[in-house]
Design a protein that fits this description.
By secondary structure, the protein is mostly helical. It contains 22 helices and no strands. It has two domains: about 160 residues, Orthogonal Bundle (Multiheme cytochrome fold); about 140 residues, no CATH class. GO terms for molecular function: metal ion binding. Keywords: Electron transport, Heme, Iron, Membrane, Metal-binding, Signal, Transmembrane, Transmembrane helix, Transport.
Length: about 375
C-alpha cells in the first residue's frame, strides 16, 4: 500500500514537472517568437505614427540595417527595457495619446555605429576636400550622431514635418526627395563651426579643408579693387556662408529664420540688408576698409569730397553713413560729424503741423519741403509698392 502511494506521488511529481517544463519551454518559444517579431523593422512600420521615419529610412543608405541594430543597445537588460518601453508606446498609440513629433529619448550610442563602422580598419569616405580626424572627435567624446544625426531619417522630427496632420502626405516619392537634400542627411558646416567655437577648436578653413576653399573669383587681380563688392551685391548670402565665421560679432539678421518668420516676411535678406551695411557690420572687413583710401590723402580732399561723394555715393557709404546711428568696425565718421543738422533744438515745437517726438523723415515731409535739400542728409526707406 505504501509502495503504491509512493509510486503515485512520484508520478504526480513527474506529471507536474513535465507540465511545468512544457509551459516554460512553450513560454520561452512564444517569447522568442514575440521578441523576434517585435524586433523586426516591418513591425515598426505597422505603426502609422512612424510612417515618416520608416519611409525616410527605406530611402536612406541604412535601409538594409534593422531598426533594433541602432535603436536598441546590446545586452539582455537593454532588450528588456526596450520591450517594456514598447508596451508603453503601444498603449499611447491605441489611445491616440502620443506626442508628435516623435523623438528619440536618448542618443544612439557610438557602440551601435562601430558595430558596423570600424574606424580602425576602414577608410573614411568624405566628400570633396574635407578632412575629418575621427580619432580626435572620439577622444573629445563627440558622439557619432552629433554630426551624423540625419543619415537614416533626414532629421524629419527636427524639421517639424511629422505631425499627425502630415501622415497622409508622406509617400515614397516625398521621402526620396527629402533624403536627397544634403542639408538633411550630411553634417552641415554651421554645426561644425558652432561646436569648434564652443570647444575652442580651430576655426580656420585649413582645419577641415585641404584646398582652403578659396573661390576662383577671389584669385582674380581686380577682386580686391572693387569687384568683390559687385559680386557681393549679386549673392550676399554666398559671401555670408563663409565670412560669417570670420567676424568677431555675428550678424543676427543672417541667422536662420523660423518657418513662421519666413512666412510673415516675404522679403529676402538681400533686400533687407545691403552690401554696404554688411561691410560695416562684419568685423572681418575692417582689415582692408579701415585703410584710408588714396583719394582721402589728397591735400584738396576736404574741398572736393562733396563732388566725389556725388559721383561715387555707394562707394562712400561702404564705410560712412549720413548720420552716426551706431558704432561700426570701420569708421565712426559720418556726414553729420562735420555737417550737423540745420534743425534747431526746438524745431518740433515750432513746427506748424504737430508731430510726435520720435518722428522720422519720410515722403510726407516732401509735401512741403524741398527734396534735394532734405535728402542731402536724410534718406527715405524704400518699401515695396512705393
Amino acid at each position: 500500500m505504501e509502495k503504491e502511494q509512493s509510486l503515485s506521488k512520484k508520478l504526480k511529481i513527474i506529471k507536474f514537472m513535465t507540465v511545468l517544463i512544457i509551459i516554460i519551454v512553450g513560454a520561452a518559444f512564444i517569447l522568442k517568437i514575440g521578441v523576434h517579431a517585435t524586433s523586426s523593422s516591418s513591425f515598426c512600420a505597422n505603426c502609422h505614427s512612424m510612417k515618416p521615419q520608416v519611409l525616410t529610412w527605406e530611402a536612406s543608405s541604412h535601409s538594409q540595417v534593422e531598426c533594433v541594430q541602432c535603436h536598441v543597445q546590446p545586452g539582455l537588460e537593454n532588450l528588456a527595457k526596450q520591450k517594456a518601453g514598447g508596451i508603453k508606446q503601444l498603449y499611447h498609440t491605441i489611445t491616440d495619446n502620443y506626442i508628435a513629433p516623435i523623438r528619440m529619448p536618448s542618443y544612439i550610442p557610438n557602440e551601435s555605429c562601430t558595430a558596423c563602422h570600424n574606424m580602425s580598419n576602414r577608410d573614411v569616405s568624405t566628400s570633396g576636400d574635407i578632412v575629418i580626424d575621427h580619432d580626435i572627435h572620439e577622444t573629445k567624446e563627440v558622439a557619432c550622431v552629433t554630426c551624423h544625426d540625419g543619415v537614416a531619417h533626414g532629421k524629419v522630427s527636427e524639421k517639424r514635418v511629422t505631425y499627425k496632420s502630415d501622415y497622409q502626405r508622406w509617400n515614397e516619392t516625398l521621402a526620396k526627395r527629402f533624403m536627397k537634400d544634403e542639408k538633411s542627411v550630411r553634417p552641415v558646416m554651421s554645426k561644425c563651426m558652432d561646436c569648434h567655437e564652443l570647444r575652442g577648436a580651430p576655426l580656420t578653413c585649413e582645419t577641415c579643408h585641404t584646398t582652403g576653399m578659396l573661390p576662383e573669383t577671389h584669385e582674380e587681380d581686380d577682386f580686391l579693387k572693387g569687384k568683390h563688392g559687385n559680386l557681393a551685391s549679386q549673392d550676399l548670402m554666398y559671401c555670408e556662408s563663409c565670412h560669417s565665421y570670420m567676424s568677431k560679432n555675428p550678424i543676427k539678421e543672417f541667422r536662420e529664420q523660423t518657418n513662421y518668420m519666413k512666412y510673415i516676411n516675404s522679403d529676402t535678406i538681400e533686400k533687407l540688408f545691403t552690401v554696404q551695411q554688411y561691410a560695416k557690420t562684419n568685423t572681418y572687413c575692417i582689415t582692408c576698409h579701415s585703410v584710408r583710401p588714396n583719394s582721402h590723402n589728397d591735400r584738396l580732399f576736404l574741398m572736393n569730397h562733396g563732388r566725389l561723394a556725388d559721383e561715387t555715393k555707394d562707394t562712400c557709404f561702404t564705410c560712412h553713413e549720413n548720420q552716426a546711428f551706431s558704432e561700426t568696425p570701420v569708421t565712426n565718421i559720418s556726414c553729420s560729424s562735420c555737417h550737423p543738422s540745420n534743425h534747431k533744438s526746438e524745431w518740433k515745437r515750432r513746427h506748424p503741423v504737430p508731430i510726435p517726438d520720435n518722428q522720422k523723415f519720410e515722403k510726407t515731409c516732401l509735401n512741403c519741403h524741398v527734396e534735394t535739400t532734405c535728402t542731402k542728409c536724410h534718406t527715405v526707406s524704400k518699401r515695396e509698392g512705393e
